[in-house]
Amino acid sequence: MSATTFDALSNDGRRQATRVDDIRGRFDPWLLGVAIALACTGVVMVGSAAVAGAGMDVGPWYFLTRHVLFLAVGVVLAAIAMRTELKTIEQYSQLLLLGCFVLLLLVYVPVLGSTVNGARRWINLGVSKFQVVEAVKVLYIVWLASYLKRYSEDVAITWMAMLKPVAVVGALVVLLLMQPDFGSSVLLLGITICMLLLGGAPIQRIILPILLMVPALVLLVVFEPYRMRRVTSFMDPWQDQLGAGYQLSNALMAIGRGEWLGVGLGASVQKLSYLPEAHTDFIFSVIAEELGFAGACAIVAMYVLLAGRAFWLGLECVEMKRHFAGYIAFGIALWMALQSFVSIGVNLGLLPTKGLTLPLISSGGSSVLMTCVAMGLLLRVSWEYERAARQVAKLRGLASQPPAGPGPETAQPPMPSDGGTRGTSRLRQRIEPGVGTRSEAAASPVLRRSR
Prior knowledge:
- By secondary structure, this protein is mainly α.
- It is 69% helix and 3% strand.
- It is built from 17 helices and three strands.
- Helix 1 (3-21) packs parallel to helix 15 (422-431), helix 6 packs parallel to helix 8 (182-198) and helix 6 packs across helix 14 (365-399).
- The longest helix has 37 residues, at 283-319.
- The radius of gyration is 26 Å and the shape is globular.
């Protein structure tokens, strides 16, 4: 090959790289649509549930105004997350883990820590109180996604690599139980176990830590009187309807009154100071009373769509060898699925009463802010996945075209694999790392299972 032809092919490769780098992604319309739908539903239902339940010390629109303000700030934080490259976030994953422990320890600082209803879970920011565990959920998922990306092969083979995240979450759970916050502790444990399974840890090895955790959690319930009362009242709330079973019995009455189509938006009776925390923990009961079985099913369907689409996105990212993005999608999907399941299950009497909000719907500044951040991260994952998919499609189209060159030399026989298409193949490896290599495909446990 002459020097002229080689220069022409090199220039063509650089032009192709420039065209590919100019390709942009797009945010997943399903994720964006369902997040907006849930947030709008939350505004309407918080307004409905909180207007009648506002006390004499605050106006009727206090909780709604507060919820909208936090949602507006959350949208700004989500926009920042949507514009931040995942590789930049990954660089600070170790600092994010350190931030989890720092936040959980800040509640014990006399000036910052704040106690509400006997629980020390908040830090006082002056204008509002912030529940630190909500931020810990986001930071921990990002760190665990980074860890699984770096040690996915070791997690599938060695005990030490698998037990390190278990030890980390164990330390976080100890700090949470000191606050105390049993519900968030169980949620973090569930996310960790499921992400380890998705990251390739054999289920036979996961069983042992589970067998050790379950008796410990049972003992924490048995030897703590208020937790034991919640379990007994959950089994038969009507036995002590005005005592330990008061919340659940009123929640069940609200759901029963809703029947098929509900009593009408704003017409709930149980929210009139009968159902405690109607705008936060028990907002699903108000939804079921006002919108009926149809409305309740619509809420459940939206969470199923959110979690299912996030799981699909995670699988697609892992297949493209974008493991960090894929594991973030898995973690957020697990968070949304488990927390919404627990919150709805508590309202329906399927689970003992726990103080977990309904994501994007319940009122609660800390929960709203951090859930918006999580949605921003998830949308960023979808944007980078779509960008990579378009770049790969573009590269395959360019690679299928014959290289352009001056003069009759373009009619020469096909070039060797390390010849004129070298620039395109290198760019393809950068955009779609590991493509075409059987060893890297076999190294991904999620991809291996999906096939």
